[in-house]
Write a structure and sequence with these properties.
With 307 residues, the protein is of the alpha/beta class. It is 42% helix and 17% strand. A 6-stranded parallel β-sheet has the order 8-7-9-10-6-11. It is elongated, with a radius of gyration of 22 Å. It starts with a strand and ends with a helix. The relative contact order is 0.13.
Amino acid sequence: MREAIRLAGVEEERALLGPRDVTIRRIRDALGVRAFLRSGNLTVEGDPDAVREAIRVLTRLLDIVRATGDLTEEDVDSVIDRSPVSETGGQGIVRALDGSFIAPRSKGQRVYVEAMRNRGITMAIGPAGTGKTFLAVAMAVSCLRQGLFRRLVLVRPAVEAGEKLGFLPGDLAEKVNPYLRPLYDALGDLLEFTQIQRYRDQDVIEIVPLAFMRGRTLDNAFIILDEAQNTTPEQMMMFLTRMGRNSMIVATGDITQVDLADDQVSGLVDAQKVLAEIEGVSFVRLKMSDIVRHPLVQEIVNAYEHR
């Protein structure tokens, strides 16, 4: 989405943008939008909700400029601090169904979101509750709304099902639905149920067990591999090489919760060594301090790590 504000002249432009464009950079960082000035028009691009919020912030700041002739740092702080994303640490991604603005809430999460915005492949490693899956799905929904990708492909290894997957009743989606439930839960916070169903019917959102990825090439897709610690190195290589033109991959996992057989190496653990030097592949390591679920979750994770 793109919207613009018309500025009256050079003096108004200087006052609103701030020294060395500090004000507009602050808004870009806080709301996760792109902004540029051209021929007196200050244009904002990005996720529709983020653009609307940025325009609201800029309009309020412009009102102050026109009333006082200048902006102070306190003025800028005051207006941005009232933005919904300011409560969650900036870099807004997308608005949830309940009206809240999804944004990173810790230093590690901010690094994670920045990596997804700037790398073709991002691997997020960390304990339960750090937002690995939810932030990936939020970013995917934002990208779909902006038209950056044509579809979202959700992938998860069905480790427990093994070779018995084909004998389970129902179609492919029903067979793997229990393993993809966390991804559906995340989608359910961002999209109406009817919209999810419509996207699935139109193949805009596709659910795929890892075993069914072999031989495919996925163009114009945002691809999420959840529970990546339960892949073997061979499966991880197979998955990553499905990446087609104008696509991006986010793989998430907790390397302390590997469900593979004792003699099998985790593909996520192996990838940290094999892919460490490849530019365009980012590894983000989230910690207990990044846990954003109920406060007890952090204590439970800590207790089990130190038993």
